[in-house]
Design goal:
- The chain is mainly α.
- The chain has one domain (about 1-230): Vanadium-containing Chloroperoxidase, domain 1 (Up-down Bundle).
- The protein has helices spanning about 1-20, 25-30, 45-75, 85-105, 145-155, 155-160, 165-185, 195-215, 215-230, and strands at about 35, 40.
- A hairpin with a 3-residue loop joins β1 and β2.
Length: about 230
């Protein structure tokens, strides 16, 4: 199952690149749905700001809570939900590599893609750039890709660590949270649709890859069960 999920995420990444590479105007068309002449982007309201604060902070609380629960378990305060040391390392490493290194330090600071709110088509001063053009006027912390969407989709990592009976619901909740955060960032004029799609897919690939690395036997057993069921 995990192997199939990795292949699907990789295929979707390639497909996303092709679609928005061949038709970059799709990004502008989606962004205009959230933009009003003279009023700006519809997400920039007090309610939108409140939701953004919640969506931004929630993923960052999860590894902190996991570390706290793990430390408490070391001193005797055990609980059925207490994570193992390997689980804590997996959570922290996937967050650091995905939203941290790949998204924020590598892509956002070197893509030079102006955000929708900064482009000429929506009241800004800079020229629009497709996702593959790294020659825009943005210097750092640019539009490609979305850091907040990446952090939101990273919640797939703790979802994978939940007990099997509730894991499917946890995974659906994590992906839904990522989609909601992405929609809010587009409504704010902070990112294009392709920014959020790539952020989610790159993060999912990293999370799934590390999960398979940290628990190879569990993944192999799961793949074998899926194969047996299919046969």
């Amino acid at each position: 199952m995990l192997r199939n999920a990795l292949l699907i995420a990789l295929a979707l990444s390639i497909l996303t690149g092709l679609i928005f590479g061949l038709a970059p105007e799709l990004d502008l068309s989606v962004a205009r749905l959230f933009w009003q002449e003279g009023a700006g982007f519809i997400g920039q309201t007090p309610t939108g700001e409140m939701l953004r604060s919640i969506f931004y902070g929630a993923p960052l609380c999860l590894p902190a809570l996991a570390i706290l629960a793990w430390v408490l378990s070391l001193v005797g305060f055990t609980h059925p939900w207490s994570p193992s040391g390997r689980a804590v390392v997996f959570l922290c490493l996937s967050l650091a590599l995905g939203p941290g290194l790949v998204v924020n330090l590598v892509l956002k600071d070197h893509s030079h893609r102006p955000r929708p709110v900064q482009t000429l088509e929506m009241g800004g001063k800079w020229e629009f750039r497709p996702w593959f053009r790294f020659d825009g006027q943005c210097a750092r912390n640019c539009s490609f890709v979305s850091g907040e969407a990446a952090s939101a989709f990273w919640t797939l990592a703790p979802a994978l660590l939940t007990p099997p009976p509730v894991r499917p619901l946890a995974i659906v909740a994590a992906l839904s949270f990522g989609a909601a955060t992405s929609a809010l960032r587009i409504a704010f004029g902070g990112h294009y649709l392709s920014d959020t799609l790539f952020a989610g897919l790159f993060t999912i690939l990293i999370v799934l890859g590390l999960y398979r690395l940290f628990w190879p036997r569990k993944c192999v057993e799961s793949d074998l069960r899926d194969t047996d069921a299919a046969l």
